[in-house]
Structure prediction request, 187 residues.
Amino acid sequence: MKPTFHPPLNVDWASGVLCGAPLICKTTSLGDLAGVFADQESWRQHDPSQTVYSVEMFDSPSGEGELYVGVTHLNPGRVGDEYFMTRGHFHARREQGEVYFGLRGEGLLLLQDEQGQTRLERVLPGSIHIIPGFTAHRLINTGDAVLSALAVWPSQAGHDYAALANGFALKVTPETVKLMAKEVQNG
Ligand code: PA5
Ligand code: NI
Prediction:
């Protein structure tokens, strides 16, 4: 049988720009993130139209067993002493995991299990993050440049934002980053 040949989809590793197929894009601004940052007073003083992050993903099939591929571009910035971050979510299908790949910039991946236990992984170009099922995840930009991360997840996973309506158990500030650096230094 004669094979059919298809040009591949493509990501520019340095910038996270996707091409090769139609894309779906979603931008999240500060105004969309009511109640997400701890310092509400500071949040109110920011321009609500300021973009915090955008997600670009291939408009690919969404059936059982299919995979989605997308890139999150998270701007640098702070609200009070808290870094810009994604809203964060559990998957609606709790058992389904996801993989993140750091592309550019520097930041943290905050993971939280269903018991509220948190952990942090450093995100940097080339980092790989295996997010298990039953684990909420949020990207945090601790640097001065855009943080971009590629993600691959089951198209049926869905997003459950409501389960985290009261926020994650850990607030990430420059103090957290200092603590982490010390821990890494001490092995
Ligand atoms: O699938 C993912 O986990 C990511 O593509 C996120 O959806 C993306 O980073 C945006 O975050 P959130 O969906 O929490 O707003
Ligand atoms: Ni996810």
